[in-house]
Design a protein that fits this description.
- The chain is of the alpha/beta class and 258 residues long.
- The chain has one domain: Uracil-DNA Glycosylase, subunit E, CATH 3.40.470.
- It has nine helices and five strands.
- It has a five-stranded mixed β-sheet with strand order 2-1-3-5-4, with helices on both faces.
- Helix 1 runs parallel beside helix 6 and helix 6 crosses helix 7.
């Protein structure tokens, strides 16, 4: 497998993503392979242009400008699945949901739920550690207008499928937004979970229990932590806390003491 200038294995096609993801033996290998993916030309061009031009407030920083891997331990019982990295958030910092206001929301909520050691995630090396939860995105590259195409979503799906497969204790998936909800169904079907027909519609607080080869998996829907939702009050902190509280209960984690 060829390496790019940063030393990451390069994947250039949808078929290559399938093969590269399937061959990743652990999360560390998967993260490295995700970081070298160039399978979607439109996304590659956009993420690299943003990294080159930069936002004025970050002009002195070196942008990551690559696909953004997930974050969290392999023994996580909870997965949080978002949409895609922000152009000047994860695409800049190299860590999912890090360096933007959406990240401020989700990591503060994970901290309140006892799943993170601190309420902020600003940059690599800031001391953040997650416990019991893995955070990832359905699409790994920052897309123009925050809108990946269906083809880009499907091309990226094998990365998510392998990531979830490498979480042997997974019991709950918290899905942020309708895009991630749609992306997750074919991933779970391919993994052997019995999918209801018709597929349940997305909604905040929706709960769906699936049976699969590794036991039950519960999907929990939550409005995305986008500024469009948080600024307008469509998603509030108590609403997000309620979903994560339900996730920790379903995962069998002890409740936080007051």
């Amino acid at each position: 497998m060829a390496l790019d200038a940063g030393g990451y294995p390069v994947t250039r096609s949808a078929g290559g993503v399938i093969r590269s993801a399937a061959g990743a033996r652990d999360l560390a290998v998967l993260e490295t392979r995700i970081s070298g993916c160039r399978a979607c030309p439109r996304l590659v061009a956009w993420r690299e242009e943003v990294a080159r031009v930069k936002r004025a407030s970050f002009r002195d920083e070196e942008y990551w400008g690559r696909p953004v891997p997930g974050l969290g331990p392999a023994d996580a019982r909870i997965a949080v699945v978002g949409l895609a990295p922000a152009a000047h958030g994860g695409n800049r910092t190299g860590r999912v949901f890090t360096g933007d206001r959406s990240g401020d929301w989700i990591f503060a909520a994970l901290w309140r739920a006892g799943l993170a050691n601190q309420p902020t995630s600003t940059h690599l090396g800031d001391g953040l550690e997650l416990t019991g939860v893995r955070v990832a995105a359905a699409v790994r590259c920052a897309p123009p207008d925050n809108a990946p195409t269906p083809q880009e979503r499907d091309t990226c799906n094998p990365w998510l499928a392998r990531e979830l497969a490498l979480l042997p204790d997974l019991r709950v998936a918290v899905v942020l937004g309708g895009f991630g909800w749609t992306a997750l169904w074919p991933v779970l079907a391919a993994a052997g979970y019995r999918i209801p027909r018709p597929r349940p519609a997305f909604g905040h607080g929706v709960e769906v229990r699936l049976e699969g080869p590794r036991g039950p998996l519960t999907l929990l829907g939550s409005y995305h932590v986008s500024q469009q939702n948080t600024f307008t009050g469509r998603l509030t902190e108590p609403m997000l806390d309620a979903v994560l509280g339900r996730a920790t209960a379903l995962a069998g984690y002890p409740p936080l003491t007051p």
